[in-house]
Structures are given as C-alpha cells and as structure tokens.
Amino acid sequence: MSMDKGKQIDRYDLHDHPLVLVEAQGDENEKALCSVCGEVIISASTFSCVHCNFHLHPECAQIPSFITPHPLHPQHYGLFLYPLPEWLYGGRACAMCKETCKFRFYSCYDCVDKFYLCTKCGASSWNLIDRENRSKYEFKDDGHQLPFIFLQNHKDELKTACCSWCLESLMGPIYVSVGCKIKLHSKCFHNLPTETAHPCHRLHTLFLHFRENNFFCEVCQKNDSDNLLYRCLACKFDIHLECIRSRPIIEANRNHEHQFSLLFRNDPFVCDACGTIGRFVSYVCHTCHLQVHKSCTSLPRKIKAARHDDVLVHKYFLEKGEDGDCQICFERVKKEYGCYGCSKEGCNFVVHVKCVFEDDSLYTIIDQENGDRDDATDSSSSIRVIKVNELGEAMKVRHFNHEHDLVLGDKIKGDEDRACDGCMLPISTPFYYCSRCDFFLHKTCAELPKIKHHWFQLPAITLEARDWRRCSLCGRRCSGLFYIGVGGKEFCLRCAAVPYTIKNEGHQHVLFFDRKCKGKCNGCGDYHNYFGAFRCKECSFSLDFACITLPLEVGHKCDRHLLKLSNEDGEDDPEQFRCDVCEKKRDAYRLYYSCSTCDNSVHSRCALGGYPFLKDGATFNWGYHNHHHKDLNYVGKVVDGYPYCSECRKPCQDEVVKCTECDYIVHFDCGLIWLPPWL
C-alpha cells in the first residue's frame, strides 16, 4: 500500500466514512487507539476518519474481512471479521495468543460463541503458513488423527504464550493444533511421550489421548476443551498437557519474595492466596507457611480494577477492621485467606481474588516500577469559564457542545416543558441556558469531565454529543450527551451516573450490580441475560439499567400532580389494577407511576411515552427508512391536528417521524423499518 499523506481508502465493512492517511499524534497522552486491534497507534501515520474518533494502523487497514478456508479452523467454511458485540462486555481471549480481543475478532458463523482469533493472529497465521501446503497437516500418529499446523516463523504474535509441554516461551518453529488449544515447540512435538506416570495417580499409567469433547483436569480442577491430554483409561482420570509436568521449584520473583516448593497430595486444601479449594498439586512457601494453587504463585501484587479508583494490593490475610463484603459478588471476604484490598489507608474496599480476575478486561496489572501511581483521574473540563460572580461561581461559560455562551439560571421562563440537552431529563435548578436559542444544561451535566472512568469498564470513557443513539446499558434510544467507551459502547448520562451499589425507591434493600445475574427484571419483566442487572443480596429482586434509571417523578396530563415511581400495591387483588391512561391491566408487581392524592396509577411506558429521551428534530437518514427523501426528523408530539400515517393510514398524534422536504409523516415504528434492534 502506498503511504502517501492524504491517501483515502474505503473500508465500509469497518466504518461508515472514508478513512484518510494522516500523521499520527505527537503527544504521547493523545495517542489514539486502533479501532480494529485496540492497541495504541505508535506508527508515524494512521488512517483516520475526519468525522469521528475512528483510527486504524496502516496494517490493520489492510486486514481481510474474511479468510476462507482458514487452516486453524478447517471444519467450517471460513473465518469472518466481527465487531465485538455489546453483550460481550468483557471481550474474549484469542485462542492462539490468549490476548483479549478488544474491538474486532475473527470467528466463524457456527462458532462465534466458542472460537476467537484476534486480528493479528487471524491474519498473520494465514500469511505465515505456506500457501501451497495449507491443506497438508502433520499428525502425531495416524490413530489419533489430530491435525497440527507447522509455523516456521511467528514473530511476536505469540509473545505471551508458552509451550504446552515444556512451559517455556514459544521461540522458533512451532506446531499449533487446529483450534489453537495446544502449541508446541517443534522438538517437544516430536518427542512427546505416548505414556507417562504421574504422582497424582500412582495406580495406573497415563496415556496420550485424543478427545473431541470437554474434559475435567484433575490437577487444576478446570473444565477444558483441549483435544490432547493424558488419561487413565481404567479410571477416566484426565490431566492437561500443561499440568502433567509441574515445576518442582518456583523461584522468588516480584510477586512473592520467597521460593515456592511443589507438593503432591491427594487431600484437598484451601489456598491461602485466594481462599478457594484445591487438590492434588499445591506449592508451599516454607518461610511464610503458605499453601497455594499453582496459578496463585504468580498473583500480581498490585492491580487496578474497574470497580475502584485506587490501586488494589494483594493481601494473604486481613487485619482487624479491614474485613467486609467483596465489592463484586457482595459475599463476605474471609479474613484468614487472601484477597485484594485498597492500598489507601482507611479504605476498606476488598474483593475476592476469584471475582476480580473473572474478566480480563476489568483489571490491569500495575507494574512494580510505577508503584502506586494512578493515572485514573477524571480530566479535561467540558466548559470554559467566561465570567464568575463574587463567590467564584461560574455565571457564563462556553460548553463544547454549543456554539453560544451559556448563562447560569435559577428560574425557568414560560410554562412549557424543557429538558436538559445533556441527560434529556426535565430541567431543574441550577442550570445553564443559551439566551439566543433553545439550549439548556443542568449545572451538573455541564460540569461533567470530558474524560472519566466508569466502574462498568476499565478504560476511560469520553464525553461526546450525539443526535441520537441507543444507550448500550439501558437500551433506550436517546439524544444528548453520551460517554463513549471501548468497542463503541455508548452510555447515556443517566446510566453513566449510576453507581454499582444503589438504594432504589422501589425496594427496601440496597441493590448491587451483578454481571452474572440472569432472569426477569422485577421492574419491567424483560429478561436481562447479557449485561447482568442490579440485584438484591437479601432476596430475588433485580432491576436492569432501564428500570434503575427511571425518573423518580414525571408529569402527565392525566394528573395535575407529579406522578411518583412506585412498586407493589400490597395484598390487594391483582386483577383490579388497571392503568388510568391506556385502561389496560397493570401488573401489580412491576414498577409504575402513581399519585396518592388522586389515586391514579399508570404504566411506566404510558407515563413516559415510548421514546422519552429522544429530542425533537433527531434525524434518521436513508440507512433507517425507505422514503425517497434523505432525512426524517423525530417529533414527540404532533400539534397540528391528527394527520394520517403514510404507512398504516391511522391517525398520528405522538412519536412520529416527518420528512423535511415533503408532507410524508409516519408513526416512529411504522417509518423506521430498517432500524435494527441494537440501534
């Protein structure tokens, strides 16, 4: 590819706009992330979009959209380049290098939830294998028929992986099994013994075995899908290749100051480092009197986790006054076993080792050389102060999302409803407003930092304005300001403001966010099987993001008072509950809005409307409708009569889209037939 400055390419499979070759940022703090591989762009140039924050390494701009067939996954047609779905919030580990696929990955249609290759491994392994011999595989023996791919040179793609037999770094020629589960040096591949003895199973010999289904390794106590293992055929006793040879001594390192010695025992034990049960293989520190899992010998001393602002330090036991509930699963942390706790004195934040390491994308290891230095502070103001009063309060500011100066106000003129152009909730004091046009911002929304950290993900999120988007957390179509996260996730301001523990008006106990929580939301009855939900530790009550962010009070024409968010009508007959707006039955155990003075009760959807956070004028272009003109604009309420919908021919009153060039008008759900469910 020619690297002429200003060169333009079209990769509509990756991005909606053309990409232009530009010089990379010189400031280290302003380095962009590649939107394909997720790594910082340090090359002299980058392909970037002039309209939005989208950048590509020059080499990533050339990767193929599909590879067919791919030798590491020959059982299906080929591998396709997929964007990371929003529901895969933690990313997925590459089957070859074990690094997390951050933005895009290669997989096949049949195995998109099982087999992943990062963009580097997917493309490079295809290029490294001799094109003329891609259909030829080497086998350990004809009986097992286990295919291996020979890679003569693999550069740095496997720098974090090790040989499945000798556990040393993968240097030089290697063999990789189809599916990438097993990686072996060429010498280890040819010298792999077909039978061996092991101290964890002294009764019988273990034989090299090929298995197509998952198995349970008795040494590390994990289920896995490695095809090659050692098995006792009489006892069905299975061991990974990696677990068959354990190192007798693990030398002192930066994670632990003393050496660990291997101990084989059939008795179960509780690991002093993580507090969970182990069996057969453990390592003992004779100086500290610790017995730990093999994997726990390398636990990092310091990490940064998404759930906490400060650095977390590994502790083998807790001092008096340091105990508490794990801030991820909210079960009790036992004082006598290892956990991670806050490094700041006086902070009792603690998490189980198992919980904090469940998702690779939600923590990062702190380099010992950097000590406790933490760059996770919120930064970059959204406003520029122009005028302050005698108390130092900003009276006039310029916000990045508006072309005019904004003035601080404490009274709304007129009786019409006004919404904040940031969070789209009704405006309340204090607020900033534009004296030249209809633009309002809550003072709290105007003062939000451009860059901040959010407990839902580890990397920082950036504040940007959107005409409309679907929030990645609550699933509502919204206008206003959004925080943009990794993988293109977009968080509306209402969701971005929710802490991971919250006291909700609809429930008597504190709720905490659990990523593994599945089932029905008690607020709306919808299933929350992807992102998790806020659940109660004391009972089975749970709420999704859409319900946890419902406004506590709303106005509606059915009542002269504000309607308040409510839950549970007591022990009355559920059959008598009806919505006073639509007059249909209302589930007595779902969230609803009510007025105790007037005895009105309303479905939450009837009180709010279908799209309460979309701003009038939000534009939907040709990508979302089949009208012959380009743009349709959203209108929340029709004020000039009841025109007929151009599609279903029924009267239009609320929530319509209108053409900007003709009289075409349709219900929102009738007109936007091409709007996919995730937008």
TrEMBL record:
Species this protein is from: Hibiscus syriacus (Rose of Sharon)
Keyword NAD: no
InterPro entries named in the record: C1-like_sf, DC1, PKC_DAG/PE, Vacuole_Formation_Reg, Zinc_finger_PHD-type_CS, Znf_PHD
GO molecular function, one term: zinc ion binding
Keyword rRNA processing: no
Stated name of the protein: Phorbol-ester/DAG-type domain-containing protein
Phorbol-ester/DAG-type domain location: 16-68, 257-304
Keywords linked to the UniProt accession: Metal-binding, Repeat, Zinc, Zinc-finger
